[in-house]
Specification:
Blueprint lengths: L4 H17 L11 H8 L1 H4 L19 E3 L4 H12 L10 E4 L5 H4 L4 E3 L16 E4 L2 H8 L7 E4 L2 H12 L2 E5 L2 H9 L2 H24 L5 H23 L10 E2 L2 E2 L1 H9 L2 E3 L25 H9 L2 H4 L3
Parallel strand pairs: 1-2, 2-4, 5-6, 6-9
Antiparallel strand pairs: 3-4, 7-8
Length: 314
């Protein structure tokens, strides 16, 4: 497929805006064609998740606030369906719609009440009320939420996670729906077998090239070229198994993608669905695995396997 990534990105972005907001890109009303279509048959687009309701009853030590880009009409329709409650907003301490992220994080736009519209300044968040617009600075001031005692879940790196992480130091959780399919593919026996063969093949190439410095022969040169061809074939197979045109969302051959690097930098945890946390207690603390740099790998591996003493002849 011959394409320029910038043109593709611009066109997809424009199409998404029109679908969500209509041609006038207005934040008022019911939204664009996509919103109208979804509201016509909400059950066609949303799947009820009974386990999700558990997260709305987290006890007095925790508070829930929903901040989203959707219009109130669509959010009300969707949440009423998901929770089977017309008073779903009572499950949250605060609900904000039409936040216009990522402008929400950088602008000084004031909050405005939706259920009981007034022109008065919003100086506190009232339970059961729904607010429109606003900005992150006022949100933090009114709620007192700051630093690592806050965890914010979103499904978009640039519109959801970067600014809260940088500006307020919030903990962040990223919802990546494609992750479920990636894990399913990586768990197949054929993928594991192919990946194992690639790793062994690269080790053979390293050893053969080291030997070639002392024992260079035509047969060895031919063997190395055959292994290199095989490596190219296997690498392409591992890439296209995820997507024939683009490969994996998270990896380009052996390197993490730009998207994966952003996830590692700005998301403390990530998952395909928030209900993946079903069996995790609220007071559980996640500790990240150590990331090895190339020059650290030997010593760190020896420490992990308990063979450092053997290596140092202790």
């Amino acid at each position: 497929m011959n394409f320029h990534p910038r043109y593709l990105s611009d066109d997809v972005n424009t199409a998404a805006r029109i679908l969500h907001n209509g041609y006038n890109l207005s934040m008022h009303g019911v939204g664009g064609r996509l919103h109208i279509e979804v509201m016509r048959d909400i059950s066609k687009y949303l799947e009820k998740a009974p386990k999700l309701l558990v997260y709305f009853y987290v006890g007095n030590d925790y508070t829930l606030r929903a901040v989203g880009h959707l219009t109130f009409e669509l959010r009300n329709k969707g949440m009423s369906y998901l929770t089977s409650r017309k008073d779903w907003s009572d499950l949250f301490d605060c609900v904000i719609v039409c936040a216009r992220k990522p402008d929400f994080y950088r602008s000084h736009r004031p909050f405005r009440r939706i259920k009981k519209p007034t022109w008065s300044v919003v100086d506190k968040f009232e339970p059961g009320e729904v607010y429109q617009g606003g900005n992150l600075a006022d949100f933090s001031r009114l709620t007192g939420w700051c630093g690592q005692k806050v965890i914010y879940f979103g499904d978009h790196i640039f519109s959801d996670l970067i600014d809260p992480s940088i500006q307020q130091g919030w903990r962040t959780g990223c919802i990546i729906h494609e992750l479920a399919k990636e894990i399913e593919t990586r768990s197949t026996s054929s993928y594991r077998h192919t990946l194992s063969w690639l790793i062994r093949l690269e080790r053979l190439l390293n050893e053969a090239q080291s030997q070639r410095q002392e024992y260079r022969t035509p047969d060895l040169d031919n063997l190395i070229e055959q292994w290199r061809d095989e490596r190219r074939r296997v690498r392409l197979e591992l890439k296209t198994v995820f997507n024939k045109s683009f490969g994996s969302v998270f990896r380009t051959y052996h390197n993490p993608t730009f998207f994966a690097n952003k996830i590692r930098k700005f998301a403390d945890i990530y998952m395909s669905n928030v209900v993946n946390l079903d069996h995790i207690p609220l007071d559980y603390v996640f500790y990240p695995n150590r990331t090895y740099l190339p020059h650290e790998r030997l010593v760190e591996t020896l420490i992990d396997t308990g063979k450092l003493g053997e290596y140092l002849h202790i």
